[in-house]
Amino acid sequence: MLVLWASLVMVGVTGDSPIACNLNVLTPSERVALHERSERIKSAVVRVEEVADGYRIYFDDSFSMMDIAAWVEAERRCCPFLDFTIRFDRELGRRSLQLTGREGVKAFLAAEIPAIGAAARGR
Q1: What does DSSP assign to residue 44?
Q2: Does a structural domain hold residue 8?
Q3: In this model, does residue 123 exceed pLDDT 50?
Q4: Residue 119's pLDDT is what?
Q5: How far is CA 10 from the centre of its chain?
Q6: What is the pTM of this model?
Q7: Number of separate domains in the chain
């Protein structure tokens, strides 16, 4: 009986997803939209700051709140290992996106996102 109970308990246990993007979770049109937003996001980056378990990216006004939210919505589907924190400072101040996660995520971000990689190399 104990073995059966342990087996039932283990069925509900899920491990962490791999630290790798899976673009196949997006439809072809969603992948195109994500690529286009990613290109626009690159040109809107004004600063990248290292934080304990990832990076904070600051944007200029050319990348809207809706653009940031739409980019995050797509990214969180294909990169479920990431934690996202969107911040809009008061008085129409700075807007930023913090990308963090478990061990290994920070190195992944530095390798995969050019602006983050440049900031990491410039330390």
Answers
A1: H
A2: no
A3: yes
A4: 62
A5: 29
A6: 0.80
A7: 1
Q: What is the pLDDT of residue 121?
A: 66
CA distance 53 to 31: 27
- Cα angle, residue 74 at apex, residues 71 and 79 outer, rounded to 5°: 110
Place of tokens 């479920």: 80
d(CA 63, CA 37): 9
Domain interval for residue 105: 21-121
Q: For the segment 37-46, what is each residue's pLDDT rounded down to a tens digit?
A: 988 888 889 9
Asked if 51 contacts 97 with a C-beta cutoff of 8 angstroms, the reply is no
CB 119 within 8 A of CB 55: yes
Q: Distance between CA atoms of 21 and 77, rounded to whole angstroms?
A: 9
Does residue 4 lie in a domain region? no
60: left (phi over 0), alpha (psi -120 to 50) or beta: beta
* Beta carbons within 8 Å of 66's beta carbon, 6+ residues apart: none
Cβ-count burial 90-113 (b if 16+ within 10 Å, e if not): eeeeebbbbbbbeeebbebbbeeb
Mean pLDDT of 11-19: 69
* Mean pLDDT of all residues belonging to the chain: 84
